[in-house]
Amino acid sequence: MQKINAISGFLIKILSSQKLAAVLMTLLLLLTFLGTLEQVDHGLFAVQKAYFESWFLVHEIGPVPIPLPGGLLCMSLFGLNLLVGGLVRFRLKPSNLGIFIIHIGMAIMLASGLVKLYISDDGHLTLFEEEESNEFVSYHYWELAIFESGISGPVKEYLIPGEDFLHLGSGKSRVFVDSDLPFQVELSNFLANCKPRFEDSDLQAISPEIEGWALEELPMEVAAERNIAGLVATVIETAGETSSSGLLYGRSDIAPWSFQAGGRSWALALRHRRFSMPFTIRLDDFHKEDHPGIEMARSFRSDVTKFESGREQKIRIQMNEPLRDGGLVLFQSGWGPSNAPPGARLYTVLSVVRNPSDHWPLYSCIVIGAGMLIAFIQKLLKYAQRQARLREEGPE
């Protein structure tokens, strides 16, 4: 028991030390510096995953690999250091109330980052005037939608999330089964960035050739949202007979692959993941104002109508004036097409973030500010009391 107590005491001493906090902050500064440099060649999304949302990473300086703790590990240890040193071992007294409150505010800030990492969703909502939608689309993540085609009314979709097939590279496959479907779907030959190409004798097939077409693998783009994925799908009827195979390309949501199974028409679409919203947004008017004499936007805004529970609300979304509702934030981020001639029909791009901890950083700053104010007042009162006591004692 004494040995266990000694070990636990040693761990608590290490985890609560200011030296550990200083080391972790130095490592976070180093990761920020290295990640900023890597962003030039690998893009923001890839660097964010590799350097800041990982437990460990290997940074290469020339031919020399350097193992480093990832941002997630550093922030987890930093949060543990704050919890153990600032809230558990810290002896709360009236004289250090402000410092204790500051630590609580810092803990809220770290918790908001953790919630943002694991629970939030982000994407975009792209609309032409008079178009409306109640869902937004991810920039980076994929899904496979299976649905019955050629029917009127609401269509039920069967979804396969991207994490279930992103690892199915060359030579790997996986069969997906749903009791409501009269067929099974085998997925294989996933490519993170590719384009369809008509095969000829001079070029070796990149993926299995289907009706003269194959998928050609392309280098990964620095801007991750420009990568268009692709894979091979094989439909197997429940009786065990292979029905057909097709190439699924990341733009197949425009013209999905159709096939017959169980006497009905079905379709498969590889598309960016979609997220539903608790309301519908309709774009009423998009306005863009250019700089004088040049075709460069000086400002642009979207006048929209929000439909929710039978109510309508007119809202203007523009720079620094987002729409916040139901844990969602919609802010003006772009427009297109960029090469549109004067008078052409334009569309708006609204970036959408679903983040339950959206206001937590604000609450954190308020708590930290209150703690700093209390600590300052306490120090000021102590100083005033000390000066008053010195004046009462008089010169020696």
Please tell me about this protein's structure.
Helix content is 31%, strand content 39%. The protein is an alpha+beta fold and 396 residues long. The chain folds into four domains: 1-90, no CATH class; 96-120 and 358-396; 121-133 and 277-354, no CATH class; 137-275, no CATH class. Helix 2 runs antiparallel to helix 3, helix 2 runs antiparallel to helix 4 (71-88) and helix 5 (97-119) runs antiparallel to helix 6 (360-393). The longest helix is centred in the C-terminal third of the chain and has 34 residues, at 360-393.
Describe the secondary structure blueprint for this structure.
Layout: H1 2-15, H2 18-42, H3 44-52, E1 56-61, E2 64-69, H4 71-88, H5 97-119, E3 121-128, E4 132-148, E5 157-161, E6 173-176, E7 183-191, E8 194-198, E9 213-217, E10 230-237, E11 242-249, E12 257-261, E13 264-290, E14 297-308, E15 311-318, E16 323-325, E17 328-336, E18 347-354, H6 360-393
Helix pairs in contact: 2-3, 2-4, 4-5, 5-6
Mean pLDDT over the full residue set: 87
Question: What coarse outline follows from CA principal-axis ratios?
Answer: globular
Label the structural class: alpha+beta
Proportion of residues in extended strands: 35-45%
Count of helical stretches? 6
Distance between the termini: 57 Å
Please outline the major beta sheet.
6 strands, antiparallel
Order of helices and strands: HHHEEHHEEEEEEEEEEEEEEEEH
Q: Count the domains.
A: 4
Q: Based on DSSP secondary structure assignment, what is the total number of beta strands?
A: 18
Helix content range of the residues, please? 25-40%
Rg to the nearest angstrom? 28 Å
Q: Could you name the ranges where pLDDT drops below 50 across 5 or more consecutive residues?
A: none
